[in-house]
Amino acid sequence: MDNNTIPEEYRPISMWGYFGYEILFSIPIVGFICLIIFAIGAKNVNKKNFARSYFCYTIICFLVFLVALAIVLATGAIESVQTWF
């Protein structure tokens, strides 16, 4: 199927497109703003779904970080690391 016959909202994104969006979303503040804009208002369904999945991945990583931080603080591991320095 030719890309010209596919409506704009359903056109597939190339591998380099996904790679570029991955790099864009990795930029600390600007990337997060672009991520939210693409997840809410992107015209292309593939771009919107990718932004939503990357947002879910970011939230999961943040939650894992918070759990790990809580475990480290609760077990007192920070104090034992500070004695090394």
Structure description:
The N and C termini lie far apart (63 Å). It contains four helices and no strands. It is elongated and about 65 Å long. With 85 residues, it is mainly alpha-helical. The chain has one domain.
Helices and strands in order:
Layout: H1 15-26, H2 28-41, H3 45-75, H4 77-82
The biggest sheet, with number of strands, parallel, antiparallel or mixed sense and barrel status, is:
none
Count of β-strands: 0
Could you estimate the helical fraction of the residues in percent?
Answer: over 70%
Given helix and strand content, the structural type is mainly alpha
Query: H/E element string?
Result: HHHH
Overall pLDDT: 91
Q: How many structural domains?
A: 1
**Shape designation:** elongated
Low-confidence stretches: none
As a percent range, the share of strand residues is: under 5%
Q: Report the span from N to C terminus.
A: 63 Å
Q: What is the radius of gyration computed over CA atoms, rounded to a whole number of angstroms?
A: 19 Å
What's the helix count? Answer: 4
Summarize the structure.
With 85 residues, the protein is an all-alpha fold. Helices cover 74% and strands 0% of the residues. It has helices at 15-26, 28-41, 45-75, 77-82.
Summary tags:
4 helices; elongated; mainly alpha; 85 residues
